[in-house]
Amino acid sequence: MRVRTVLKAAIAVTLAWGSTAAQAEWHRATSRHFIVYSDGSPQELRHSTEMLERYDALLRLMSISKPDEDSAKLVVYQLPNEADVAALSGISNAAGFYTPGPLGPVAVAARTTAYNEYNGGDFKPLVVLFHEYAHHYMLQNYTAAYPPWFVEGYAELLGATTFEKDGSANIGNSATYRFWGLHYGQQMPIRDLLDDSSEAQAGRLTDPFYAEAWLLVHYLVFNDARSPQLHKYLAAFSQGTKSLDAAQQAFGDLDKLYRELVAYRDRSTLPGLHIAQQNAADLGPIAIDTPDPAEQAIIPARLLYMRGLGSAEIPKFVAGLRKNAAAAPKDPITLDLLWRGELAAKDFDAADHAADALLAVKPHDAQALLGKGLIAMQRLEDAKDYAAPKWAAARKFVIDANEAQTGNAETLFAYYQSFVRAHLPPTETAKLGLMRAFELEPQSPPIRLTLAGSLVGDRRYSDARTVLKPAAYSVHDLRSAASAQKMLGMIGTVKDGDPLPMALPEIDKTNDAAKKS
Asked: Hey, CA dihedral for 220, 234, 99, 488, is it positive or negative?
């Protein structure tokens, strides 16, 4: 249900979507863990946000370790229908997606769904939101590595959760919208499903994979004999055993497991779990507001930026922002997005002008100061000018941005990068800042891979492996997964403190390849 890359063929329809979306009136809900934008009714928006908070509370209740309470709120956009989501994502059948964008993680889902005539009415918008949030929650709170089939199957399992009026939850509901594919669609052999190789992931068909992954996770979770085997399998996989090898060790005869799975698929009813939440913590307040006209006008552009811009999209994107800025020359949100767009277009003078305009409106604004630093660094890098005083001046803007707003992952990462990009060894403070950026935003592949490289440089190979493993098996970002796998291969089983197994620049090249994705 998620995508990170955008097909070039979809660019025109994506920009057309942006102009259409700009005509709608958006509302915003702000709660304890979410900021949700929707062009639906305020009542519908409040209900969706309440359900997300209830779902978050359920996930926290189910967590073995204490979940993170210090992360930024997840930004969610609810678009009118699946066609709008497909136009934005570039995937024809996408009902939603989740991506760690340049401004932090963002989830997108349709307000109305019409998956197909076989869904039995159960494929509702909350299914998509719950699925995507399961990905976010796992990345934010779990450090173990999980195989692709389990990541998607578990998200499918949790995505089908429903809530009663008293707040109790039903987990393990039958995903009837997967039944047609399971019974009549293309079948996926169990060894293909369990295979964690990059070749297997690249050649998979999406619908069979999601359907079979859901069924296998459901069976293993709710079968008393198989459930301990699942824990054994996940432990072996997390320790570095290949998925198929771990499966054969934990589950035994895979052909027998597949026969059991087929019989389970054909049952008239499936087991589930009911969790009472009468004593659950209060969900907290939910504030509904309507953004002002200037912010309304740039919400589609902001979503495009958060999703990630393709190079061919940038000229039209910037041209539209310039029109928005001309209409609202003192709007901080517009000016912040404008300097980012101009920097992406490498019009440094225009980017500087936009950042200065934002500082004129909001002196000491953290985003404007960060912009000044990033613009200065890009100028120097493009000019191949590595004069230390000039980089120190650029870095000072980032330091000022951090003082104006602490705990911002983008700023902390930029501070670390200000040394790397200047061809200087990062200071201990910069390394601590990078670690904090990772704690705040572990979903970000550039932050994760850069931290891994830093840990390798400090000969902390065990910590580097822990950071790399979750990225190495991502089904949504195959390029970052390949980079993480390459880094894991480079450090192998080297013990902490031992000399580097290769020149550090080789690892830096791996990081650079991932960032360019």
From this structure: negative
